[in-house]
Amino acid sequence: MPDVLHTDPSDWKYVSEGGATIVYSYKGATHADFDGTVLRLRKAPVGMADTPSTSLEGEEDPDDPTIAFQTKCMERLIPPEHLPRLVNVHLNRTWLEKLVEMHDRERPELRRAKDAIDLNKHKGVLATDLVGGNRLAVEIKPKWAFLPSPVYLSQESKHSKTNICRFCMHSQMRAARGLQAATDYCPLDLFSGREERVLRAIRSLWQGWITSDGAANNLKIFASGKFIRPIDSQALLADGCEPVKNMDVIRDAFAAALVQPLLETPVLRILSRLQRNLDVLDIEGLSDLWRRTESAVASLREQSNSVPPPTPIGGSSPFFNLLEPRIPDWTTFLDNYISLEKQFDASNPTADSLRHYILAYLLSATFKDCSIIVRLKYLQPGTVPQQVGGPQSVAIIDLDPKSMSKLGQWEKLDREIVASYKPVEGKVCVDDWQPVM
Ligand SMILES: [Zn+2]
User: Fold this and answer.
1) 128-142: average pLDDT
2) Is there a contact between 63 and 77 (Cβ–Cβ < 8 Å)?
3) At what angle do helices 407-420 and 282-300 cross, to 10 degrees?
């Protein structure tokens, strides 16, 4: 385990933070363990972050669950060269206090008012720094890669769901409710593997980045580790480039640089295959399997006359006991899924079969919600883009396990999206997927 405590807190620079964690990148003297890495630390609400915990000093913290899920599960589905390296590191309170003292004022004020680094943690995560270095890093959240099979869809949803992808339907609903600007980004373009369509997807993402002033969820751009907004777009240009006033010129240089790695990397193909192969029933078919399993178990118990009403999918059922999956459950699932030794049949409603399809659906959701990071050289409009190269020029991040308790919300959201969708003349999302040998 690399020893972060041997580095000085001043060797680390604040990068960014999310709801649960905060990230620092290593800027100290050259060091084999830390060059090109970031340190991800857990946060806690203000007031709790610095209250000494009741656990004994030196008592072992559990390892971060993200690391176990990645090493025991994700690395079996995704070639490790496309994943950031994640390592557990030891921390102590004195070191963390010094880090806070040096860097806390660099955090946004609103965040500082809410939470802080959890000084009670004895462990953190050291990860590959995918956005730093003297280059651009483009973070894309691609979302759903496929159209569902019509087999398990209801009459009400079949037409829309087999013609319009889930992301485009959801975007329309979010725009109508004022939750986001209208976007014409369609993930099926990005996943198509065809240059013209991938370029169209990039231009749509760029447009969303401009209209949202960089806050769009599906595209983030970093230059040498710094988050870039449209107003800073000159920062995307290589040293020595004349300033470019026309944003379309920068957009075209950006699209030309990004399209090649996206066409060459196997990453989008892998995500598309996993998403569709793990979600064969659609949430509608999964929900139906849940209900059929409840009535099958009830009739086995010969209680069919006094059957309680069906429970919502993912909730606690009086008919079977399905617990939140833990790492051993995921690895057993993957043993079956990868070896194809044990087949499950959705027409046969048993608790085992239901459990299999639920875990599959949750894993599919992980791949629908992850992001990819593409590393590019600085842009030189009007020239042939140079590629960073190497398999790690495209990596997958944010592969977190999803909870069974989400299934009920997802089913409800699915119904709302279908009910609110208004057909747009000429609009069809084309799923170009062709299985390769
Ligand atoms: Zn679409």
Assistant:
1) 93
2) no
3) 130
Are 91 and 143 in a shared domain? Answer: no
Which pLDDT score, from 0 to 100, does residue 298 have?
Answer: 84
Using CA atoms, how far apart are residues 187 and 211, in angstroms rounded to an integer? 19
The last residue of one of the domains, among 82, 105, 129, is 129
* CA 29–ligand 1 middle distance (angstroms): 47
Measured distance CA(172)–CA(326) in Å, rounded:
36
Query: Where are the extended beta strands (E) located within 72-225?
Result: 86-90, 115-117, 123-128, 136-140, 219-223
Q: Which pair of tokens denotes residue 264? A: 């060459």
Summarize pLDDT for 261-274 with one digit per residue, the tens: 999 999 999 999 99
Q: How far is ligand 1, taken at its centre, from the CA of residue 387, in Å?
A: 29
Q: Ligand 1: distance of its center to the CA of 431 in Å?
A: 9
The amino acid present at 247, given as its one-letter code, is M
pLDDT at 58 over 70: no
Which residue in 162, 180, 163 sits closest to 171, CA to CA? Answer: 180
Going from the Cα of 336 to the center of ligand 1, the distance in angstroms, rounded, reads 32
Q: How far is the CA of 145 from the centre of ligand 1 (A)?
A: 9
Strands (E) located in 187-318: 219-223, 226-228
Centroid of ligand 1 to alpha carbon of 165 (angstroms): 4
CA of 332 relative to ligand 1 center, distance in Å: 34
Expressed in angstroms and rounded, the spacing between residue 173 Cα and the centre of ligand 1 is: 13
Domain end among 113, 129, 145: 129
CA of 167 to the centre of ligand 1 (A): 6
- Provide the number of structural domains found in the chain: 2
CA of 55 to the centre of ligand 1 (A): 50
- For residues 152 and 82, state if they share a domain: no
306 and 186 together in one domain:
yes
Q: Which residue has the tokens 């319009």?
A: 164
Full strand arrangement of the beta sheet holding 219-223: 226-228, 219-223, 136-140, 371-376, 394-397
Query: How does pLDDT run across 348-388, given as a tens digit for each residue?
Result: 888 899 999 999 999 999 999 999 999 999 999 989 888 77
| Angle CA 58–60–66, to nearest 5 | 135
87 CA distance to ligand 1 middle (Å): 37
